[in-house]
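Researcher: Before we compare anything, I want clean individual predictions. No alignment, no superposition, just each chain on its own. First chain goes here; please echo the sequence and then give the C-alpha cells.
Model: Echoing the first chain and its structure:
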Amino acid sequence: MVIDPRTQAPHTPPGAVAGASPGATARRLPSLRHLGPNWYATVMGTAIVATAGAALPVHVPGLRGLCVAVWAVSAALLVAVLAARAGHWVHHRDRAREHLLDPAVAPFHGCMPMALLAVGAGTLSVGRDAVGHTAAVAVDAVLFTAGTAVGLAGAVVIPYLMVVRHRPRPGSASPVWLLPLVAPMVSAATGPLLVPELPPGQGREALLLACYAMFGLSLLATLVVLPLVFARLVHEGPLPLALTPTLLLVLGPLGQSTTAVNNLADVAPRAIGAPYAPAFGAFAVLYGVPVMGFALLWLALSGAMVVRAMRRGMGFTMTWWGFTFPVGTCVTGAAGLARHTGLTAFTWLAVALYALLATAWAYAGARTLGGLLSGALLAAPRPPRPVTVRTT
C-alpha cells in the first residue's frame, strides 16, 4: 500500500489487488488493466487502408493483393482487441467502469462499433477474394448489424453520460467527442454494400433509407459539436501536445459523410424508383464537393497544428492513429466524387490522400508494435510526484 500524495489516502497500485497473492494478481492479467477502448483505433486504421485502396479510381498493379493482406491483418486485430477488451472487462471491471465514467476516455467507446463496421466492409469489398462472396456477405451482415446496434446505442449513452455524470467544464470540448457520433455515419457509408445482397422490394428500400437516416443523425449531431470544438481552440488555445493528432478526428464525419452519399447514390437505382434515385445522385455531388472542400481546409489547419506540436517535442502516443481512419474516409469520399463527376482532379486527390494514409498507417503501426513489445503502451500511468510538506 502507498499513500496518494494528492489525497493523502491509502492507494492500491494499478494492477494489484489488496490482500491478493502474487499468483492471484497474475491471474487478473494486470497487463490488460490499462488497455482502453482507444485500441480499436488500430483496427479501424488498418481496415480503412484496405477498403480505401480498393476504392481508388486508378489501377495499381499488385495493390489489390496488398489490400487483401491488410484486410486479413485488420480482421486478426479485431479478434485480438475484442478478446483483450473482454479480458479487461472480466478481470478489471473497476477500471472498465472508470473508463466509462471518465469524460476523457468515454467517447473512445465509439471506436468499437466503427471497428466492427470497418472490418465488415473490408470483408465484402476485398476480403471476398480470400473467403468467397457468400462467406463475405455473411460476415459483413453480422458485423454490420452488431456495429450499427452498438453504434446507435453509443450515440445515445455517451452524450447522456456527458450530461448527467461527466459534466465537462466549459471550454473543454475535444474532437474525441465526435467519436460516438460518427459511428452511425460509418453505418450509413458501409450499409450500401449490403443493399444489392437483399432481394428486391421493401428490404432494399428500407436499408437504403435507414442509411440515409443514420447519415442525418450523425451529420446533425456533428454540426452541434463541431462549433464547440473550434470555440475551444479559439478561446483556450492549442490542444496539449499529445492530443494534437485528435484534431484530425474532425475529418471523420466530413469524409465519411461524403463517402456515404456517394455509396448510397451508387445503389439507389436498384432500391428506389424515380424521382428519388436520380435526386440521390445529384445530392451526392451537391453535398460532397463543398464538404470535401471544408475537409481539405481542416486538414491544412490541423496539419499546421501538428507541425507546431512536433516542433515543440510531441512524441508518439496512441492518438497518432487519428492520422489513419479519418484520412481514409477522405480517400473514399474523393474516390466517390471521382466516380460521379468524372473529374481527374478528384482521382489524384484520392491518390495523394491515400499516400498520406499509407505513410501514417505504417508509422503508427511500427511505433505501436514497438510499444507493445517494450510494454510501454500497456504500462500503468506514471504516479504523481510526491508532495513535500515543510514543517516549522
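Researcher: Okay. Second chain, same rules.
Model: Second chain and its structure:
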Amino acid sequence: MSVTDGFDPVGVKCVVWDLDGTLWDEIAVESATDDLPTPRPSALAAIDALAARGVLSSIASRSAPSVLDRLDAVPQVRARFLAPQVSWQDKSESLRRIAQDLGIAVDALVLVDDSPYERAEVEALLPGVRTLAPEDVPALLAAFEGRGVTAESRERVHRYRTEETRRAEGERFEGSREEFLRWCDMRLTVGAATADEVPRALELAARTHRLNSSGLTPDRLRELASSDGHELYTARMTDRFGAYGIIGAALVDRTHRTHRTDHTDRSAPVTWSVPLLALSCRVAGRGAAAAFLFRLMERARKAGAEEFRVTLRPTDANLEMRILLRQAGLRRTDDTATVTGAATAADSAVLGRTLQGDLPGSPAWLHVSDREDAEA
C-alpha cells in the first residue's frame, strides 16, 4: 500500500522539509567549513515541481539557527523556501509557526523528514499533518499528477514571497496598523466571474477553510454556477507591492422569490441567496472579506433585492467567517429551503438580513469598486 493512499493533494498548501538527511546527506553543524552541504538534486527537483503546481515549500530543522544564516548566503537554494524554521524547538512547534507565518491551517502542511522519531512527534501532536520519509516523495509527486493547475496556482509561490515583503515592511513601518494598511493602497474590485476565472473560484471552494461559509464542493459549485438564476462573482485585489490575484468567490442564487413587503409583483427576485462565500486566507485581517461581502449586499440592493442570505455550515475552522457574518448583521432564519447545495440541511443554516436602511461600510483603508466601473 502506498503511503499516499487516501491522500488528497487538494488540501496541501505547503510541504515542509527537514535539512540533515533529507534536503542533503550530511549534518550541517558538523561541517568543517561555513559551506553548506550540497542539496540532493532530486529534492530540489521535487520542490520545483511542487512550486509549478502552486504548492509552497518551507523548512523545519532541529539544528543551530546559524544554519539558516548560512542558507541565506546561497540565494538559489534559500529562495525556494518560505517561512523557514531552524532551531532546537520541537518539530511540531516549528510547523505551527510556519502555518501561522503563512496564514494557512496546520493541516495544510506535509512534513518530509528522514527521522522516524521526528515524524512520530508530529503525528502525535499534530494528527492532521501527513508525514513522509524522503523515499516517499516520488509517491507524493505522483499524487498531484493529472490535477489541473490554474494560472493562480502557478503564481502562488511568487505571491507568497511578495507577502513576505509586505510583512517585513509592516514590521518596519512606523505607525499604526491602520496607517500601514492605508499606505499599502489596497484596491478590491468585484465583478461577475469570466470563463477563465471559474477554475480559480473552484480552487477557492476546495482549498479555503477559515473564510469559507459552507464548504460547497467544486463539483457542486460548477453545477450550480452554470444553472439558471445563478451567478458567480469574484474579487481581485492589488496593493503597492503587486497583485494578489483572485482572492474571493461567491455564488449568488437569485431563484428565490418570496413575497415583497410592498406587495408588488415586479420580476426582480426579492432575495439574493449566497450558497458559498469563500476567500483566500492570504487576505485575512485586511478587511477584504468584509469588503467583498458588503459589496455583494450593495449590488443586491441595487438589483432590487430586499433580503440577503448566506448559507453557513459551521466548522472548527471557519470561526472568522461566522464572526464576519454576524458583524454584517446576518442572523439565523427559520427558512431551510434556501440551503442550496450544502452537504445537508441538518448541518447548515441560513443567515439573513434585510437590505433596508444603512448597510455596513467597507474598511476605510480599502478602495472598493465594481469591476465594470474599474474597466470603463
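Researcher: What stands out in the second chain?
Model: The radius of gyration is 23 Å. Additionally, The longest helix spans residues 156-172.
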